[in-house]
Amino acid sequence: MKKYMRPNIPEAGCDEAGRGCLAGPVFAAAVILPPDFDHPLINDSKQLTEQARYTLRPIIEQSALAWCVAQVSHTEIDQINILNASILAMHRAIDGLNIRPEHLLIDGNRFKPYPWIQHTTVVKGDSLYLSIAAASILAKTYRDDYMMDLHRQHPVYGWDSNKGYPTEAHRQAIAQHGPSPHHRLTFRLLPKEKNKIINHTNT
After folding, report:
1. CA distance 133 to 21
2. 11-151, superfamily in CATH?
3. What is the pLDDT of residues 126-157, one digit of tens each?
4. Beta bridge pairs of residue 89
5. What is d(CA 48, CA 54) in angstroms, rounded to the nearest whole number?
6. Three-state DSSP class for residue 6
7. Which long-range contacts (CB under 8 A, 24 or more apart) does 178-183 make?
8. Mean pLDDT of 75-79
9. Sign of the CA dihedral 84, 105, 123, 38?
10. CB neighbours (10 Å) of residue 92?
11. What pTM value is reported for the model?
């Protein structure tokens, strides 16, 4: 895995978590790692076990020159759509860095320029660059923590296991109990015909 794209300048890796979920916020993280940082276990968060992600989180936080995790709520997602919300979450994470990066490495292929900082989008960047992989781990674990808190308030949806993603059990719970106050109502929560009923109920 590569340590950086632009050597000798502060470079922040950025990634998001929760884009495909039916409920809860989308989270994003921005991480600036020291030039000499390396860790053999750091990889795309989706390739790691939950235990590995939580083991790596404090290592990343203690080793990073700067890091920040931010979120965009489900209501904001419904207002501006998930792509714009994911980019906004990354912008908010960059806002929170206590070191201003001179280059941004963005996971994926879509981004809106952050004022006065150059950026490069990298498809599957979380498996190519350490800083993006580190950001993916922070975004994922902090979002999972958030969804565990929501699960305690709304246990019927099984967010302790599905974290808001559209599993069959999650959709069955929506069909049985209706959407929670934390569901993204612009998403297709149920198959097309059933979803019309939900949308009509919430208008």
Report:
1. 20
2. Ribonuclease H-like superfamily/Ribonuclease H (3.30.420.10)
3. 999 999 999 999 999 999 999 999 999 999 99
4. none
5. 10
6. coil
7. 179/23, 180/23, 180/154, 182/23, 182/24, 182/74, 182/150, 182/154, 183/22, 183/23, 183/74
8. 98
9. negative
10. 17
11. 0.92
Angle between helices 50-63 and 130-153 (to 10 degrees): 120
Per-residue pLDDT, 197: 44
Residue 96's identity, in one-letter code, is G
Parse the chain into domains and list their residue ranges: 11-151
Residue type, 193: E
Burial 97-123 (b: 16+ CB within 10 A, else e): beeebeebbbbbeebeebeeeebeebe
* Total residues belonging to the chain: 203
Integer angstrom CA distances of residue 4 from 24, 70, 104, 134: 32, 23, 10, 12
Residue with tokens 């612009």: 186
